[in-house]
Amino acid sequence: MHFHIITLFPDMFDSYLNESILGKAIKNKKIKVTFVNPRKFVTGKYKKVWPDGNISLQVDDRPYGGGPGMVMRAEPIIKAVEFTRASIIKKHPKSSIFLEVQPPKPARGWTSKKILTVNFVPSAEKFDTKIAKNFSQKYTDIIMICGRYEGIDARVDKILKTKKLSIGDYVLTGGEIPAMILVDSISRQIEGVLGNFNSREEERVSSSEIYTRPEILIHNKKKYKVPPVLLSGHQKNIEDWKNKIK
């Protein structure tokens, strides 16, 4: 699985992707994550060279119809995504490339590269484990657009035919955290990413309460014990207990 992240702030991902399970998955080439900054595709009047030699690359502008804040312009994002799609094709010349909106018809003997482009919208379909599992099985490349400011020009979705997703009923300052969530959730559905593939919670009976050693924890002279059923060794009773307190 190759994740392509369109973001103004690629450095935000460094710590999260370089540690623990995801860091190992990248090192072991189970997943790959690359970044494309839409500022690199700013042209025309939005690219200004100042007398001191500094260059400003404006990716936002005022919203039509008024309102607070700024809106990310469509052109840099569209060009960034098109550049990414073209790069996938260039790296896989013997592959039939297709998007979600264009079902595959690969030539005989060729492999298929399946591309999905995701845009994060608070009011869209809620992302969950079922979707993560489906994506891990259906796609080889997932492009994620990380919005900023007041959002992204709506024409991006119409032109790129994106899959709109939400990670919850709240608004964040950008799409970077949702992108991290998708990378994490989808990656753990890929065999070889987790040390034990069957350790995925959704593949077994799980609960909101879990315990480990010691059996009796003493805190402020009070004893906190592990529920007896978990010490019984009776698997059916344990699973029934977990189901009750989910």
What is the compact description of this entry?
This protein is α/β, with parallel strands linked by helices and 246 residues long. The chain contains seven helices and twelve strands.
Descriptive overview:
It is a single chain. This protein has 246 residues and is α/β, with parallel strands linked by helices. The protein has two domains: 2-199, SPOUT methyltransferase, trefoil knot domain (Alpha/beta knot); 205-244. The chain has helices at 14-18, 20-27, 74-91, 129-138, 155-160, 176-187, 235-244; strands at residues 2-6, 32-36, 47-49, 55-57, 60-61, 71-72, 95-99, 111-126, 141-145, 163-166, 216-219, 222-225. Strands 1, 2, 7, 8, 9 and 10 form a six-stranded parallel β-sheet that branches. Strands 3-4 form a two-stranded antiparallel ribbon. The protein has a two-stranded antiparallel sheet with strand order 5-6. A hairpin with a 2-residue loop joins β11 (216-219) and β12. α4 packs across α6 (176-187). It is elongated. The two termini are 32 Å apart. The mean pLDDT is 89.
CATH superfamily grouping of the largest domain: SPOUT methyltransferase, trefoil knot domain
Counting DSSP E segments of at least 2 residues, the number of strands comes to 12
The top level CATH class name of the largest domain: Alpha Beta
The shape, in one word, is: elongated
Q: Which regions have little confidence, pLDDT < 50, spanning 5+ residues? A: none
Following the backbone from N to C, one meets helices and strands in this order, namely EHHEEEEEHEEHEHEHEEH
CATH topology of the largest domain: Alpha/beta knot
Query: What radius of gyration results from the CA coordinates?
Result: 23 Å
Question: Distance between the terminal alpha carbons, to the nearest Å?
Answer: 32 Å
Count of individual domains: 2
- What structural category arises from helix and sheet content? alpha/beta
Mean pLDDT: 89
Proportion of helical residues = 25-40%
Just name the CATH architecture of the largest domain: 3-Layer(aba) Sandwich
Largest sheet: 6 strands, parallel
What share of the residues does DSSP label as strand, in percent? 15-25%
What is the helix tally?
7
